[in-house]
TrEMBL record:
The keyword Protein transport applies. It comes from Buteo japonicus. This is Exocyst complex component 3. It holds the Pfam family Sec6. It is found in: Cell projection, Growth cone; Cytoplasm, Perinuclear region; Golgi apparatus; Midbody. GO terms for molecular function: SNARE binding.
Amino acid sequence: MEETDREAVATAVQRVAGMLQRPDQLDKVEQYRRREARKKASVEARLKAAIQSQLDGVRTGLSQLHNALNDVKDIQQSLIDVNKDWRQSINTIENLKDVKDAVVQHSQLAAAVENLKNIFSVPEIVRETQDLIERGELLQAHRKLMDLECSRDNLMYEQYRMDSKNTHDMNLIHTYFGDMQKLSEELAKQLWMVVQRSLVTVRRDPTLLVSVVRIIEREEKTDRRMLDRKKQTGFIPPGRPKKWKEKMFNILERTVSTRIEGTQADTRESDKMWLVRHLEIIRKYVLDDLLVAKTLLDQRFPPHYDIFNRLLNMYHQALSTRMQELAAEDLEANEIVSLLTWVLNTYKSTEMMGNSELSPEVDVNSLNPLISQNVVDQLLSKYMSTLTSNIIGWLRKALETDKKDWIKETEPEADQDGYYQTTLPAIVFQMFEQNLQVAAQINEELKTKVLLLCLQQMNSFLTRYKDEAQLYKEEHLKNRQYPQCYVQYMIAVINNCQTFKESIISLKRKYLKIEMEDTLSSSHTSMDATLDIIAKEGCSSLLDEVFMDLEPHLNELMTKKWLMGSNAVGTICVTVEDYFNDFAKIKKPYKKTMTIEAHRRVVVEYIRAIMLKRISFKNAEERKEGAERMIKEAEQFRFLFKKLAAGSGEDTEGLCDIIEAIAEVIKLTDPSLLYLEVSTLVSKYPDIRDDHIAALLTVRGDASRDMKQTIIETLDQGPSQPNPNYVPIFKEITVPTLTVPKLLK
């Protein structure tokens, strides 16, 4: 108490100190005293009121406790009296057993009397119910059936209460109402027929469907009531619970499965497009059914049935089962693509589950896959394996077809620019395009895999193409009259190489992502190299054809006949130009390459004719005449190839200059200057060998053996400064050694 007083005093001192902090506040001391007095009086009044309220509550509580104690004593006394009376009446209750049995019997008889009318009218009600079922009045038929069931159930329940072990009487009642069970089964059949055709019925006769749902709801309610009574009494009537709601959903599920399976109208034997048709029919049926279920069926069922989502799950499960069955079949490559495209793309597209009319009830993102990823991978693996075999077969067949064209007696077709071509590139890349377009329908990854496969097989195919072109050339060499259009078809083969190159680039640009190009660079390089080899060998074979025709005229060069005025070079030029009229149908850059090679080979053959030493000039006059003829013919060659190379940018001067340089050596009249002229020749063309110089001096006819050896030895000791732009030509020319003395240093 003293501690409390001290705290109160300290608090008061603190408050007073707070009020009197400034001198001017001393004038308000009286005002502060009155305000504090009022507060004190107010607090004391509230405190007195609270204490008084507490005292009143305690007084009331004590009064109630006193009354409760008196009540408990009265109840205790009453229980003692009841216990005393009960002990005295035990014997009396045992004497009333007969009365109890009479009451039970009376209750049963009362139930029998109550149902007596129904019992006697059972056969009539059965007939009426049967008629109602046959007329399709299902609600009325079910009402009468429920009345019959109620009568039977009440009788059986009373019998059960009286004697649950008396099976004879129970069987008697069950037998009497036996036709009722048949009616129930007949009515159920009618219900299930309506349920099976619910999507049609809801459009034609929605009232009938509503009646069926009401009947099922009644039965569900009765099932619940009977199950509750079973928990209390242990009795349940025969045939309960019927579970018609569960059966209805089972019927719907079987109907959906049958509808999905029944859409296959064709087989592979009768129609190659059987699977496409099958999947399209499924798509249309499922979409139509779900739209009907959402707009019409959902309104005819109670909300707790959730009929649309239940049907959606049924269709999804049935589709999943059907797709797995199809995936397990031995499908062809195009069928695998059709199936995967449908499963992975079409199913969730706006053409089906993603249809705007099905949203928001159908969320395509929440739908599980129709087939597992493992099955998808297996199908893709099988597709790639089958496609590989198919592509190999298609390419082989395409090449065989193209080879048959090579031996035709008619020229190959020309493109819009007039270049010869065959249909091979178009067939090959059309096939590639079709497969890539199909793969693109599934996913980007498969498209890339198919592109890689196509290019890989293309690489192998080009090797076979090269071999076949070589065999074509070899067969022609056995009989140059056959095939008749050999040159034209070889030109087409060369042009095909350029078409293949362009098509490969186009294919990659169209179907390959930029970041994937590096993975194919080596393969692309390999294909380009193979195509260049094919084209180069084709050009070479065509030039071989030209030079086989030129051989007799080349053999006339640098002979007495040639010196006397042979027109061999004129014939050579005409022949080459005639061939190049056909070669004009070769595409760039191969045409340019071929012109350059023809120019080079003509010059090589001309120089080879010189080195063969078919002629040895006897005097200066012959040397002059021969040299001038050589210069003239070099000019003819220059004019010819300048004409053939028009627009190609080819340098036609350098090769013919070699002939003119050799002519200058032959034309020289002063033998003392021969070494200087020969050294000039060697400095221009450093690949010229000793035997070439010896042969050239032999053709001149005025150089002694010692002079030849001296010139050669002197040239060997001189420095060699080859022109870096010079392309060696003499290394291809072999000088015969049988008729020429060896000149060894």
